[in-house]
Amino acid sequence: MPRCTGCRSLERHRISRIMFERLGSESFAAASAIQFSPDPTVDAAWFRSFELSVYGEPGGIDIQAIDRPDASYDYVGCSHVLEHVGDDRAALLELLRIAAPDGLVYLSVPDPIREPVTRDWGFAKPEKFGHWRVYGRDISQRFSRYIPDQPVLAYLGEDPVTGEWADAFLLPKSPARHRWIAERLGALVKPIAEAWT
């Protein structure tokens, strides 16, 4: 795999890291954050407070039922976790619930751009790393059903090392946060329904 020998990052990490640097990492200095999964997409030092949850480890949180109050975090990061949970609708609703009114939810799932439709097995498949599903391009319809009033923006970026492309999703909780993303990322980000057309 194209893993950095220094920071251990993969293509998806580098692509999303560039996206966050374009947003301006300094803009998170006063923000409280929670991240579900250990990855180098963001730097904990960017935030006023930073909590890491790894499911199955001590203190790990089930994202289908997050034991935190409403609107607890300005930034909620969830990278390559949603495909590992049985009820992804409950997980999405929970991630949004704990995000502040002007907060931001960051989501990443494996390669939905490469699959025409989502394949959901209804159980965790051992040979697929415990994934319950492989998301496809119809992920936009899934989001529309689950969170119809929540804007979902798709970012498509290129890894500067390998030239591979990967996507990430940003769910801004307020119109002001939506504008902030659009101003900084411009044509690199689109509403999810338009992203792959």
UniProtKB/TrEMBL annotation:
<dbReference type="InterPro" id="IPR029063">
    <property type="entry name" value="SAM-dependent_MTases_sf"/>
</dbReference>
<keyword id="KW-0489">Methyltransferase</keyword>
<dbReference type="GO" id="GO:0032259">
    <property type="term" value="P:methylation"/>
</dbReference>
<keyword id="KW-0808">Transferase</keyword>
<dbReference type="Pfam" id="PF13489">
    <property type="entry name" value="Methyltransf_23"/>
</dbReference>
<dbReference type="GO" id="GO:0008168">
    <property type="term" value="F:methyltransferase activity"/>
</dbReference>
<protein>
    <submittedName>
        <fullName>Methyltransferase domain-containing protein</fullName>
    </submittedName>
</protein>
